[in-house]
Structure formats: structure tokens, C-alpha cells
Design goal:
Elements (H helix, E strand, L loop, with lengths): L6 E8 L3 E8 L4 E8 L2 E7 L5 E7 L2 E9 L7 E9 L9 H4 L12 E3 L6 E5 L12 H10 L11 E3 L11 H14 L5 E8 L39 E6 H5 L14 E3 L10 E3 L13 H12 L19 H16 L1 H10 L2 E3 L14 H8 L2 H22 L7 H11 L3 H13 L5 E3 L4 E4 L22 H11 L4 E5 L8 H12 L15 H12 L6 E6 L6 E7 L7 E6 L11 H12 L15 E5 L1 E5 L5 E3 L16 E6 L5 E7 L5 E5 L4 E3 L1
Parallel strand pairs: 9-10, 10-15, 17-18, 18-19, 19-21
Antiparallel strand pairs: 1-2, 2-6, 3-4, 3-7, 5-6, 7-8, 9-25, 11-12, 13-14, 16-17, 20-21, 20-22, 22-28, 23-24, 23-27, 25-26, 26-27
Helix pairs in contact: 2-7, 3-5, 5-9, 9-11, 10-11
Length: 686
């Protein structure tokens, strides 16, 4: 028998006026939500259609979003309970029965503290279940446990800044588990139209054949000079994919899904002959998720241990060349699963806000206009992106700001829920691809402003193959309006606005030779329009005086203090980057790049004259680590100064002063050590 709650509850939006709770059950729940102060019940809300929205995604899988108006005491330790039952049953079970591990020691219910003023917070990005590093969310769980009833020390919120799942980098064992979950829950299948793929075992990849669209309808995406590319017709040994069930039966494609993923031929510069190449550019696309059901199952497996107890990690055929990888992935997954009960507990106790980055959908998502053309003109590629966004809305976006998803949006989604057929799924995907309200704000102090830097891109006017700006003019104008009238702002930008200059330069060089996808050449400075606009926002006389930018994406951490040169009233800007929660940058490469950055873009380097940030003073903070006992030890100094980039997996931790400026900035590592970012007067770049 399935558990009453398969994932969640996750505490989402929490303000003085609103409480949002997310969970997934095998049935539509009835019951009540209660709050307690010092064990006295102070709120009881019956679950009704007025406050509880449900969305069925399978025979035994229903997403629930509880959105209630509240008037509860702030800065007060409160406990809550969710008593649920199925429609055909009378006994309402409390969370202590439905999710026994959801409470902390000596507690009978989960809890929260409404904190209108943010005094401290947790933040991070990039959580890959099979990465060899530990899961830093476990440190967040300990942080909450240690300050559970302390109004001043308990973290105010958790900001998850992208790559909460990796749809494009999936372990073979995880994909195998996903397919078991799909069968167990009866997650809805889907039909494919005009989808062919070539068996690469017998067909080399340079054959010029494209998968993802039938031979009689194949057309390549346009390139930067609008020339059409040419493809050979599909040969007799192509396989036509008709539905998801057929896809799941392709067990020989574990670790080989790149054979199924769409390919295309794009026109290339004269010095680089064109050839068939994957539309999906992830280096690790061997088990790329494809269907909506696969995306949904992935979310359930990264947020809860419950369904892992119902599946096996082994039992499928692994190609010999991937056996070593498979063994290491299984070992990493076993450690990941072991900590999931604590992760589920953390997410039930802290307001959690989320925004997508590329891996929530696929690597290099919307990086260039040429990439967009290739994807959205290909039926299978478009379906994959749409399925990712569909699952993102249900499992992440919906709880950020529920009011953004009412009216026409809900009607379109509900049509699919009422009749989950191919036509309604395609309509949902078309709607989602045109939707432009993923960004949101939270009226805390400081105000939290969360950016959508993926779906409103400023496409290059020079070449379709060059990186697009992370936000277009209209989106940036809307951002500026959100900032006016505030003294301090917390700005969540998945990609750092002020990045490591030497890495941005490498990305620029790759763009010049026509290879932006090879190095993920997307940063705020890569597009002159978005770069100058965002920098001008910081220079505006009505801009907030304190800007704290929270970022992730890059798999290393750093902190920059930034001020405007030649300005009497320069705002103070802090670029705080913490990445990844369960991922990390390869060593010793990061140390080499760190050193090159200081050599090439130090305070006296003439290269600074060519940067877009030459009117700004940027100072990198020093790193100091503490072990579990609190003793300090400095990282081994590099020859030109101390290390500025921290490549180890971590969860960011930030304490704020009353004026919204940082008081304390640190990374919390899975092994219990802490990296503190200490102010320095060593200027890194202009």
C-alpha cells in the first residue's frame, strides 16, 4: 500500500498574510490544516476547493497546493499539522503518522516562524543526486534543528537558485527507478507524432540523419545567415517512436538516450564543416529525461525517500563501457537516499522559494537564438522542453506565487487534467513556452526579487549563433520598477551578475570562433544590451542603496564587494554566489582559473580598460575555513594571494544587518566545515 504522502509537505510561500503548502499524495485529500502556539490550537482551516487546488498526474499521483489567508503572530514559534484522509475514509491522519520522520527531536509537529524581516537565510543551487559530493541540504536541516525555537537565529527562508533537478544529467540507476515509479503510480503516458530515431549501433552519428522528426517533414533550423541546412532522408532502419510506453521498453537505451534525442545539421563557418549534431548539448545526455511522467517522477525522488523504498537501483542491462560509471553512480545515490528523510524534514520547516536554471530543463536552455530555432522547430525537442516546464510549474513554480497561475493559465492546465491526451498536452506546452510570469517578488524586508533569466532572453542582433542576453529590455524595465522606493533589495539571479572575468573572457573567445555552446557562454556581460542595461540600473539615482545578489549556477562559490567609481552616492552591491548544493567544480582547474583572474584582471592590468565593468570597483573576499570544532585554518595561499573561489559543495548562509547589508557570509559544507568570506582591500578588477 502506498504512503498517504509521497513527497512533501514543502512549506512554500510564507508571509504575514499568506501560507502555501505543497505535497503529493496517491489520492485527492480531504481534511484540515491547523496551527498551534504553545500547544494551543489557534487556527483550523478545513480543506476545500476555495483554498486547496489539486492536479492529477497519474492514477495514484495527485499534486496538492494549499493556499490560505492567515493572520498569525509573527516572530513567534508556531507548529502546524495537516490531517488528511481519502474521500472514502473517515479517520484523519496527522503528519506524525503520514510522515513520521517529518518532525525534529522532542516535537510532535513541524513548525515555522513568520519573519517579515529577514535576519538570516540559506541559499544555493545545483543539486545533482549522483554527484560524488555530499548533500549540503543536510547541513541546512541541522542549522534549523539547532535554532528551532530561536526567533533570531532560525533561518528566515531557503532560496533555491536553479538546477533543483538535473533533467539532462541522470544516472542510469535513477532512470531505472523513474520508470519503476511511473509504473507504480500509473503516471500518465503520452503519444508522439512524427518521431523517428536511428539505431546508432548500426548507424554512425555523422550520417546526417536527424532524429525527432519523420523523414517526410524534416527541416533543419535556420542558422545565423538564414541559410537552410540539408539532411538525408531517413533510411529503412529508423525506428518510429509512437508513445511513451514504447520508449520505456527501450531498455537497451539506458546510457544511450543520445541515440533517441533529436539531431540536426546547422550551417557552420567555412573553417568548420557542418555535420549532424545533437540539439541537446549536454555532455551527459546518456539518460536525458524525455516524458512528462519522467520529469514528475524525478521530482518525487529528489525530495522524499518514500518512493525509493519501492524501487530497485539495479536489475537492468548496463553497457560494458558504462559499468564503472554505473557503480560509482549507485554508490553516490545510496548516500543521497540515506539523507532524504532529513531533506524532507528541512523543506517542511522553512519557507522555500525556487527558480529554474538550465538543468531543470536542459543544458544551454535558450542560450542562443539558433539553439531556440533548432529546438522549437523539432517536435520531439519542443515536447521535451515543454514537459520540463510543465513539471517545473507543478513542483516548483506554482508554490512561488500561486496568483500568477490562475485564470487562463489554470484553464489551460485543467483541460489537460480533465483529458490528458496529446492535443491537450501540446496546447499546454505551447502555452507554457509563451508564458512570461515566472519571476516573482516577496514583500519581506529587504524585499526579495527573483529573476527569470531563461525565458525572456534578449536575442543577439549580430548573429543568431551568439549568446542571447539573460533578460530582454522589457523584463529589465519591469525589474527596475520593482526596485524603486526600496532602500535594500535581495536579488536572486541564477547566474552571477558579476562573474569571474577570466572565465567570461574564455566564454567570449569561444563565441568568437563560433562555439558558444561548448563552454556555456552565457553570462550577464556576454550580451552588450542586457549588460549595459543591468549596469545602468545599478547606477540609477533611485536605485536601492544596498543590493545583495544571490546567485548559483557555476559550481563554485565567491563573494565580491562592488561600488561605482566616480559616484558620490554609489549603492553598495554584494555579489554572493554559492554553488553547488550537491555538485562542485573540478580541481585543480578552479585554482588555475582563480590565479589567472588575479594576474590578468588585477587592479593595474590594462585589460580592465576593455571590460564593461571598468566604472566599478570590484573586491574579492578572502576565504577562511573552520572545521567542525570551530578552529580556523586558512587555505594554502597561492603565490599571488589567497584563494577567492571555493569549489567545494556547500549551502550558502547569510546574516543581514538591520539596513539589509551583509553581516556574515559563509558556505556550509556537507562535512560540517564552514568557509567564511572575509572582507579584503585587494581589488580584483575594474
Amino acid at each position: 500500500m502506498l504512503a498517504d504522502i509521497l513527497a512533501g509537505p514543502i512549506l512554500r510561500r510564507l508571509t504575514e498574510q499568506q501560507l502555501v503548502l505543497w505535497w503529493l499524495s496517491p489520492y485527492e485529500c480531504q481534511g484540515e490544516f491547523c496551527c498551534f502556539e504553545e500547544d494551543e490550537k489557534i487556527l483550523t482551516v478545513e480543506l476545500t476547493s476555495d483554498n486547496l487546488s489539486t492536479f492529477r498526474v497519474g492514477e495514484y499521483a495527485v499534486v496538492h497546493l494549499l493556499d490560505i489567508d492567515i493572520s498569525l503572530p509573527s516572530e513567534t514559534y508556531l507548529e502546524y499539522d495537516l490531517l488528511i484522509t481519502a474521500a472514502d475514509k473517515k479517520v484523519r491522519k496527522p503528519l506524525s503518522e503520514t510522515v513520521p520522520h517529518i518532525t525534529y527531536d522532542n516535537c510532535t509537529r513541524p513548525s515555522f516562524i513568520i519573519q517579515p524581516t529577514i535576519t538570516n537565510l540559506l541559499h544555493g543551487s545545483c543539486r545533482n543526486p549522483h554527484n560524488s559530493s555530499g548533500d549540503s541540504l543536510l547541513v541546512g536541516d541541522k542549522k534549523v534543528a539547532d535554532a528551532l525555537t530561536d526567533v533570531t537565529q532560525r533561518p528566515s527562508l531557503l532560496m533555491m537558485n536553479g538546477d533543483q533537478i538535473y533533467a539532462d544529467h541522470v544516472a542510469g540507476a535513477t532512470l531505472y527507478a523513474i520508470h519503476q515509479v511511473i509504473e507504480l503510480l500509473g503516471l500518465y503516458g503520452e503519444k508522439f507524432t512524427n518521431v523517428d530515431f536511428v539505431d546508432e549501433e548500426n548507424h554512425p552519428k555523422d550520417s546526417g540523419i536527424s532524429s525527432g522528426i519523420s523523414s517526410d517533414k524534416k527541416s533543419a533550423a535556420s542558422s545565423g545567415n538564414n541559410k537552410k541546412s540539408h539532411q538525408r532522408p531517413a533510411k529503412a532502419n529508423t525506428i518510429t517512436l509512437t508513445d511513451s510506453e514504447q520508449l520505456y521498453q527501450l531498455t537497451d537505451k539506458y546510457f544511450k538516450r543520445e541515440d533517441v534525442l533529436p539531431r540536426t545539421t546547422l550551417s557552420s563557418p567555412w573553417y568548420s564543416p557542418s555535420s549532424a549534431q545533437p540539439i541537446f548539448t549536454s555532455t551527459y545526455a546518456h539518460n536525458h529525461l524525455i516524458t512528462f511522467a519522467e520529469m514528475m517522477a524525478m521530482y518525487l525522488l529528489v525530495w522524499s525517500p518514500t518512493l525509493w523504498q519501492e524501487v530497485e537501483l539495479t536489475g537492468f542491462s548496463v553497457p560494458a563501457e558504462h559499468e564503472k560509471t554505473h557503480q560509482s553512480e549507485v554508490a553516490a545515490l545510496e548516500g543521497f537516499i540515506e539523507g532524504l528523510a532529513n531533506v524532507q524534514r528541512l523543506l517542511a520547516h522553512i519557507p522555500t522559494y525556487m527558480i529554474f536554471d538550465d538543468h531543470d530543463v536542459t543544458d544551454d536552455w535558450n542560450l542562443t537564438a539558433q539553439w531556440e530555432q533548432a529546438v522549437y522547430e523539432n517536435p520531439l525537442a519542443k515536447r521535451i522542453i515543454g514537459n520540463s516546464l510543465f513539471a517545473y510549474w507543478l513542483c516548483q513554480g506554482w508554490g512561488n506565487e500561486p496568483k500568477n497561475f490562475k485564470g487562463d493559465f489554470w484553464q489551460m492546465m485543467n483541460n489537460y487534467q480533465q483529458s490528458p491526451n496529446a492535443e491537450n498536452q501540446d496546447n499546454v506546452i505551447d502555452y507554457l513556452l509563451g508564458f512570461s510570469q515566472w519571476q516573482y517578488t516577496v514583500d519581506t524586508s529587504p524585499k526579495l526579487v527573483v529573476l527569470d533569466s531563461r525565458t525572456r532572453r534578449w536575442r543577439s542582433e549580430q548573429s543568431l549563433a551568439e549568446p542571447s542576453g539573460l533578460m530582454d529590455w522589457e523584463a529589465l524595465c519591469e525589474l527596475q520598477q520593482e526596485l524603486i522606493g526600496h532602500d535594500a533589495i535581495l536579488l536572486a539571479s541564477p547566474a552571477p551578475i558579476f562573474g569571474v572575468k577570466v572565465i567570461e573572457t574564455i566564454q567570449r573567445m569561444a563565441t568568437i570562433i563560433g562555439k558558444p555552446l561548448a563552454v556555456d557562454a552565457e553570462n550577464w556581460m556576454a550580451h552588450s544590451g542586457s549588460a549595459s542595461t543591468i549596469l545602468n540600473i545599478f547606477k540609477h539615482p533611485k536605485t536601492p542603496q544596498h543590493f545583495v545578489i544571490l546567485s548559483g549556477d557555476v559550481h563554485y562559490s565567491f563573494v565580491y564587494d562592488i561600488e561605482l567609481r566616480f559616484s558620490r552616492n554609489s549603492p553598495k552591491i554584494w555579489q554572493i554566489t554559492s554553488s553547488g548544493i550537491k555538485n562542485q567544480f573540478p580541481q585543480p582547474l578552479i585554482g588555475i582559473l582563480d590565479r589567472l583572474n588575479r594576474v590578468l584582471y588585477g587592479p593595474y592590468s590594462p585589460l580592465n580598460l576593455f571590460t564593461k565593468r571598468r566604472a566599478m570597483r570590484v573586491t574579492g573576499r578572502k576565504l577562511v575555513t573552520k572545521n567542525e570544532s570551530g578552529d580556523q585554518k586558512k587555505h594554502k595561499p597561492l603565490s599571488l594571494g589567497h584563494q577567492r573561489l571555493m569549489p567545494k559543495a556547500a549551502l550558502g548562509y547569510l546574516e543581514l544587518n538591520d539596513d539589509g547589508s551583509p553581516e556574515y557570509i559563509a558556505d556550509l559544507h556537507p562535512n560540517g566545515s564552514i568557509t567564511e568570506f572575509i572582507e579584503s582591500d585587494e581589488e580584483l578588477m575594474h
